[in-house]
């Protein structure tokens, strides 16, 4: 039996789990680059089991139809919008998930926000280039403070709550909004529930923690960006399409938006000629909020367990 582990960019999968625990005759191949089209189909040809890394590779109905040998698809974490579960179910493909370690993405949110507020990338580049006290051409070149400022959290689930607690440790006021926000829970957490427009108008920084859906796509667009304070910051570690990319670029170029910290994008990997790569006042990371030692251990240990359980006829963490 052949298992293909996709999108192992960091070459982490082999060492994070005991693949030798699987029965004799199981062959495991680790693919370290992102494949699409014919190259992807060729790599997966003959594989009965595929392990997918989050939403890096989309398994739509067309791709699934072209993989007649596929019997088990393991996705890291317990939700994957890039897998057509109905199509998988119709083809008799079992889809299983894994545990997800929560803190990593929340911590990345703060890494991006702090990098923006304290201007870490610019200062780091200056020191490496030989500058020390760099000449500032405008006041915005000076780092800011978090204490006394307002953080707007869009989406107060597990990640949003963790981000809010850190904000409170920085002595920030925290506002929250989502379409189905539990106002009582927010107040219990010391967070002020409010409307989306009020949050955008009052917040010095806004961070997104929503699941991508038809309802949430474009939740921050041209209108919402215009409502934000001049110089306010935006952080997105959830999904790229939550923010209208064209509107975001326009707000950055006009100077209305003080900066954006992004770990997620409409198209991933981010194309080499993408305008965000040269957009002003941005800190960009390659969708690695969840990429930590603990998370990868959970992903791949559970993937091996999923395969073993499926082979034994008792699949676990089934999504189909």
Give an overview in words:
The protein is α/β, with parallel strands linked by helices and 320 residues long. It has 2 domains: 2-101 and 292-311, Rossmann fold (3-Layer(aba) Sandwich); 103-284, Rossmann fold, CATH 3.40.50. The chain has 11 helices and 12 strands. It has helices at residues 37-44, 61-65, 85-90, 103-118, 120-128, 158-169, 183-188, 196-202, 222-227, 245-254, 293-311; strands spanning 2-5, 27-30, 49-52, 72-75, 94-96, 150-154, 173-177, 192-193, 205-208, 233-236, 259-262, 282-284. The strands form 2 sheets. Strands 8-7-6-9-10-11-12 form a 7-stranded parallel β-sheet, sandwiched between helices. A 5-stranded parallel β-sheet has the order 2-1-3-4-5. Strand 6 (150-154), helix 6 (158-169) and strand 7 form a beta-alpha-beta unit. Helix 4 packs across helix 6. It is globular, with a radius of gyration of 22 Å. It starts with a strand and ends in a 9-residue tail after the last helix.
Short description:
The protein has 320 residues and is an alpha/beta fold. It has helices at 37-44, 61-65, 85-90, 103-118, 120-128, 158-169, 183-188, 196-202, 222-227, 245-254, 293-311, and strands spanning 2-5, 27-30, 49-52, 72-75, 94-96, 150-154, 173-177, 192-193, 205-208, 233-236, 259-262, 282-284. Helices cover 32% and strands 14% of the residues.
